[in-house]
Design goal:
Strand order of the largest sheet: 3-2-1-4-5-7-6
Oligomer: single chain
Number of helices: 13
CATH architecture of one domain: 3-Layer(aba) Sandwich
CATH class of one domain: Alpha Beta
Radius of gyration: 19 Å
Shape: globular
Order of helices and strands: HHEHEHEEHEHHHHEHHHHE
CATH superfamily of one domain: Vaccinia Virus protein VP39
Helix content: 40-55%
């Protein structure tokens, strides 16, 4: 059943409160993008624009694009300086070679066609411009302790993610360079409450507003799975078992990845 407009707008408002631009991630995006103040950049899948605005406040000229009209409406209220575009990664409403670079933060798993999206990004980006992606891959998600409490939700979430090998192949096939990657491990001071933001603070998942801002919980987890998973998590935190579960999932794969690639010159 489709949500009513008011219900959807309310969910977007709650999302905006829990999904703030994290200063560390923002700094990394800026570092990898290396933007110049006299050029134009795109945030594709910008949501309510928190990272777009954060980078814009550093003096960078940004456009933000997202297929969700309610998300774009919230973004417009927050910043009149940025040009907000209602559009998807597969159909970006911009001219060829319009942008000097682009970012995509926790959004590529929502793209209906990775190949078409990269082709479209290649169309609107200039030669030698860079795209910086912040995302995760199945190999990393298998190491989330969330798998212990929300098995089905995580199975469905992992299934929608592209592997690093697939991302590498699509990038190069679409005229981009072989991507460079850097692992990101969730920090204790993280303020953008995305899926594994509770790695060190499991209590945040008891907050319904936090879960509503995470697409895995809102799209893939049934009511019973959430109730049972949270109940077991609460018990394990109380009796000290949670730390044992968490330690069993410790690994060196990283929790997320920064991925950067340049658009090659035309031959």
């Amino acid at each position: 059943m489709k949500k009513s407009g008011n219900s959807h707008n309310g969910a977007v408002t709650r999302y905006n409160k829990t999904r703030q631009a994290d200063p560390h991630i923002l700094g990394k995006l800026f570092q990898f993008l290396s933007p110049e103040k006299n050029k134009l950049y795109l945030d594709i899948g910008c949501g309510t624009g928190n990272y777009t605005i954060g980078l814009s406040e550093r003096g960078i000229n940004f456009w933000g694009g997202d297929p969700s009209i309610p998300m774009i409406q919230v973004a417009k209220k927050k910043s009149k300086k940025i040009n907000w575009l209602p559009g998807s990664s597969e159909n970006i409403p911009a001219d060829e070679s319009a942008f000097d670079g682009a970012i995509a933060t926790l959004t590529i798993h929502h793209w209906s066609s990775l190949k078409q999206s990269f082709a479209e990004l290649g169309r609107v980006m200039k030669e030698n411009s860079k795209i910086v992606i912040f995302s995760t891959v199945p190999a990393q998600m298998n190491g989330y302790w969330l798998n212990n409490y929300f098995t089905n939700m995580m199975r469905l979430s992992i299934a929608q993610m592209s592997s690093l090998e697939t991302l590498n192949a699509v990038c190069t096939e679409s005229g981009f360079s072989q991507p460079l990657t850097e692992k990101y491990f969730v920090r204790n001071d993280l303020i953008d409450l995305f899926l594994y933001s509770g790695k060190h603070q499991p209590e945040i998942y008891f907050d319904n507003q936090v879960r509503e801002g995470i697409s895995s919980f809102s799209s893939f987890a049934g009511k019973m799975e959430i109730e049972e998973g949270l109940a077991q998590l609460r018990i394990d935190i109380g009796n000290g078992k949670f730390e044992k579960v968490k330690n069993e999932y410790n690994n060196n794969c990283g929790d997320y990845l920064f991925i950067s690639a340049e658009k090659n010159k035309s031959k």
